[in-house]
Task: structure prediction
Amino acid sequence: MLTLASDIEVLARFGRALADPNRCRILLALRTAPAYPSDLADALGISRTRLSNHLACLRDCGLVVTVPDGRRTRYELADDRLGHALDDLRTAVVAVAADRTCADAEEKGCC
Result:
């Protein structure tokens, strides 16, 4: 039985997914169009085994879903709004990076 996750669980899962650069790359690729694992692996330049592990994590986080397509399986974002959320996060992070709020951000490695 599927249940809705709480706001905190949703943000924690999203954060875990975004914690790895390859998972970020996968999500950004899927925001433009659904894709097959072999095509994603080739486009991102990572092995199919590593891609499979990352896709499993993204599935477990509830961010991507599989869609059977004949004998193949296609991956896509679980919700179209995730693509918009990724775009919003990208622009927010860029805005924060350009306007550092910590006076000693470079020394501390933050912001």
About this structure: Residues 73 and 85 are 25 Å apart (CA to CA). The helical segments are 7-18, 21-32, 37-44, 48-60, 80-98, 105-108. The first strand starts at residue 64 and ends at 69.
